[in-house]
Amino acid sequence: MDKLSNYFRTTIEEMRYNVTWPSTTELQKSAGLVLVGSLVFAIVVGIMDVSFETVLKAFYNSFR
């Protein structure tokens, strides 16, 4: 039990005094970047999906 309490004590101390936390503006910039990147990725994947669907439908319909 002593090891567990020591672990939590040192973890809390590490988080309070040794971790460099980003400022609010840095967090907002990072969140915006992640949002834009996610939207771009979703759009690219959506375009690929529609493209593959169109190509495969044309391919399958050519055998009818």
TrEMBL record:
User: How is it placed in the membrane, per its record?
Assistant: Single-pass membrane protein
Q: Which InterPro entries match?
A: SecE_bac, SecE_sf, Translocase_SecE/Sec61-g
Instruction: Indicate where this protein resides in the cell.
Output: Cell membrane; Membrane
Q: Respond yes or no to whether keyword Protein transport is given for this record.
A: yes
Gene3D superfamilies membership: Preprotein translocase secy subunit (1.20.5.1030)
Record field: transmembrane: 31-52
Sorted UniProt keywords: Cell membrane, Membrane, Protein transport, Translocation, Transmembrane, Transmembrane helix, Transport
Please tell me whether the keyword Metal-binding is annotated for this protein. no
Q: How does it assemble?
A: Component of the Sec protein translocase complex. Heterotrimer consisting of SecY, SecE and SecG subunits. The heterotrimers can form oligomers, although 1 heterotrimer is thought to be able to translocate proteins. Interacts with the ribosome. Interacts with SecDF, and other proteins may be involved. Interacts with SecA.
Q: What is the role of the protein in this entry?
A: Essential subunit of the Sec protein translocation channel SecYEG. Clamps together the 2 halves of SecY. May contact the channel plug during translocation.
Q: Which HAMAP family match?
A: SecE (MF_00422)
> Which family is this sequence assigned to?
Belongs to the SecE/SEC61-gamma family.
Name of the molecule in the record? Protein translocase subunit SecE
